[in-house]
Amino acid sequence: WHAHELLYGYLPAIVAGFLLTAVPNWTGRLPVTGRPLLGLLLIWVAGRLAVAGSAWIGRPWAASVDLLFLAAVAAVVFREIVAARNLHNLKVLFVVGLLLVGNAIFHAESALASGRGYGTRIGIAAAVLLISLIGGRIVPSFTRNWLVRERPGSLPQPFDRFDVAALVAGAVALTFWIAIPEGGATAAAAVVAGLLHALRLARWRGYRTAAEPLVLVLHVAYLFVPLGFLLVAAGIAFPAYLTASGALHGWTAGAVGLMTLAVVTRASLGHTGRPLTATAPTLLVYVAALVAALARIGSAFGWQRDLLLHTSATAWVIAFAGFAIVYWPLLMRPRREIARDAARHSGAGGMQA
């Protein structure tokens, strides 16, 4: 339940939220709102209830209801992209499709009592691919915008063949990992992918963004992508010192968890007209998420395992509960109040300039 609901409950909700926000920017069309958006929310909730009550309604019904959400999200995104003839962005549907296939395999493995874990690995691989693809857009873009405005000098490298090589290496390593999670070839491919993604991150000049945590956190979150590859390789090469299940949390607790908070805090500020800067409460949310990831990875090495697991779980709850507490009042305010505050902040910024 833990693996399924984080990979195929939590993660699809985050993916849907991102795509329904990003697709209107890509296509120039109006965002999905009102009843269609409410319908997607209710389908997602129905999936969570179906999985929780699968012992009563049966596995086939639970799986059918649970799979509806990703299918509905794919259909909505496909319609919007095709209607705008923005076909080059259809590639994001590959990741949604991969999540859908992985979820179906997860349910099948559960029904057959199979412990092969293909469904789990496919879900994690889809998350890493999505962060690699979308992170490759937003991290250097937001970094460039901030550096041009606040700290002129060296800027992130534009997308080029090196990025393509890193993405291909990552996809190959993930494919090996899905198929042969404990193979030597998988470890070798993971090392290559980890090093290339680390170099890719270094090209984005994250070290120059320390003055603004809202930007820096994007780089810290992406750092867990190459770290995850290297941890998986280490888990294969040195199983006595690093558990395989612990190694993959570099991607899940680290890359997915921290990147989620990095993006939703920035999006919440931007879409409510607030200044794009991290306040002290937001910084505490980031620190809690980072502690959760590091403690969960540390527990995989066996030292003080129970203490680190409890620390990780507690810090994770603090991070996401903290986000809800800090941003809920802002997100629930009437639009007219947001517009008035945005105008006031704009005026203050103009006077300061």
Q: What structural class should be given to the helix and strand makeup?
A: mainly alpha
Number of helices, where a helix is a run of at least 4 consecutive DSSP H or I residues? 14
Measured by DSSP, the beta-strand proportion falls in under 5%
Rg over alpha carbons: 21 Å
The major beta sheet can be summarized as: none
- Helix and strand run: HHHHHHHHHHHHHH
* Share of residues in helices: over 70%
E-strand count: 0
Mean pLDDT, to the nearest integer, reads 90
Unreliable parts: 347-353
Query: Whole-Å distance between the termini?
Result: 53 Å
Outline the secondary-structure elements.
Blueprint: H1 2-27, H2 34-52, H3 54-57, H4 59-83, H5 92-111, H6 118-150, H7 161-179, H8 184-202, H9 213-237, H10 244-247, H11 249-271, H12 280-299, H13 305-331, H14 335-352
Helix pairs in contact: 1-4, 1-5, 1-6, 2-4, 4-5, 5-6, 6-7, 6-9, 6-11, 7-8, 8-9, 9-11, 11-12, 11-13, 12-13
